[in-house]
Amino acid sequence: MAKEVHILLVRLGAFGDVLHTLPAAASLRRSIPGARLTWAIDPKWQWLLAGNPDVDCALAVDRRSTKSLKAAWRYLREKPVDIAVDAQGLIKSGLIVRASQAARRIGFAAPFLRERAAGFFYTEQIAPRGTHVVDWNLDLAAAAGATARIVDAPIPAGRPEGDLPTKPFVLACPFAGWEAKQWPLEHYDALAKLLSGTGHALVLNVAARCDSPVFQHISGLPGLIDATRRATAVVGLDSGPLHLAAALKKPGVALFGPTDPARNGPYGGTIRTLRDAGAPTSYRRTNEILPCMRALTPHMVFEQLLPCLTTAFPNPTPTR
User: C-alpha 13: how far from its chain's center?
Assistant: First the structure.
């Protein structure tokens, strides 16, 4: 019987980043003999790990709570860590890795670190070979000893929330981490009219109720997961809901502007990416929708969606 190897994986958040780290967790847990995996995560995203067989312990680390920080510190002192892997590359995640006192502490090398000072907490730094963030994390797992690259990772089942249409629908989440990555809200109304001719509704998940009938309030992660599973297809931005849809292998269209789809796009090949040819690559968190996002018209998005709808509705008759 293999000797137990306690692995600490640190990825506190956010939504899409946690999803991008699930394959690395699966690779570590399933391909290292005797592996027991603890994932340090912000409580806000802990539900994404519910029932995950690759995670033996979801260690809640809430930087805003002294009680949470003390509990995490005690856990790391009582359960010695052999290998600590930092998939976040920030000082705050590096500190958790260092607090584990693991003999091997593995993280990214510059320029892949989000904060260069985080590198001081590692014993090993790697420059990932891949382009996409999922592949970066898999390269970290390989450096820690994972002998397999497992890209399919479990997602919780979710549960119904809100009143979803009884007819087929396309799900979209219109907000992203910053406004520069968003698509104009009025474009969704136009897209809804185009979809109506195919027998599909458009459902927009938002955090608060809106007056438009296109919008549907879904209050939490369980409801979003359930709605994504039930949708015929998705329209996504560079945000967590898009990466959830990709992880669930849903078809759809991803609308990209300033961020690089090769690095941050939907992973797995089921979702098409639409990006204006003149879009700049920038990660500046500006609060204004960029011209390159406005250049993606509702008709362009609809044309890309049509092949995703024909399976559920074989002879769509779009209204022009």
Answer: 9
| CATH superfamily placement of domain 169-309 | Glycogen Phosphorylase B; (3.40.50.2000)
- The helix/strand/coil state of 197 is coil
Give yes or no for a contact between 229 and 241, defined as CB atoms under 8 angstroms apart.
no
- In the chain, the amino acid numbered 111 is P
- Assess contact for 11 and 61: CB atoms under 8 A: no
Cβ count within 10 A of residue 276: 17
Q: Give residue 207's pLDDT.
A: 52
Total residues found in the chain within this entry:
320
Which residue in the block uniquely carries the two structure tokens 């390989």?
142
- Indicate the helix (H) or strand (E) that contains 256: strand 252-256
Q: Specify the domain boundaries for CATH 3.40.50.2000 within the chain.
A: 5-143, 169-309
Residues 155-167 as b or e (16 or more Cβ within 10 Å = b) = beebeebeebeee
How buried is residue 245: exposed, middle or buried, by Cβ count under 10 Å (0-12/13-18/19+)? Answer: buried
* Interhelix angle 240-247/15-31, nearest 10 degrees: 40
Tokens 């920038």 correspond to what residue?
Answer: 282
Distance CA 62, CA 44 (A): 9
Q: What is the mean pLDDT of residues 32-59?
A: 97
pTM of the complete model: 0.91
| Segments in 64-178 forming alpha helices (H) | 66-78, 91-99, 133-143
Measured in whole angstroms, how far is the alpha carbon of residue 100 from the centre of its chain?
A: 26
Three-state DSSP state, 89:
coil
The answer, yes or no, to whether the previous bond of 14 is cis (omega within 30 of 0) is yes
Q: What is the CATH number of domain 5-143?
A: 3.40.50.2000
Q: Cα-Cα-Cα-Cα dihedral of 134, 138, 140, 146, to 10°?
A: 160
Q: Which residues contact 220 (CB under 8 A, 6 or more apart)?
A: 161
Average pLDDT over residues 232-255: 96
Please give the share of the chain, as a percent, with pLDDT higher than 70: 92
Q: Which residues contact 312 (CB under 8 A, 6 or more apart)?
A: 168, 232
Token pair 């014993």 is at which residue? 123
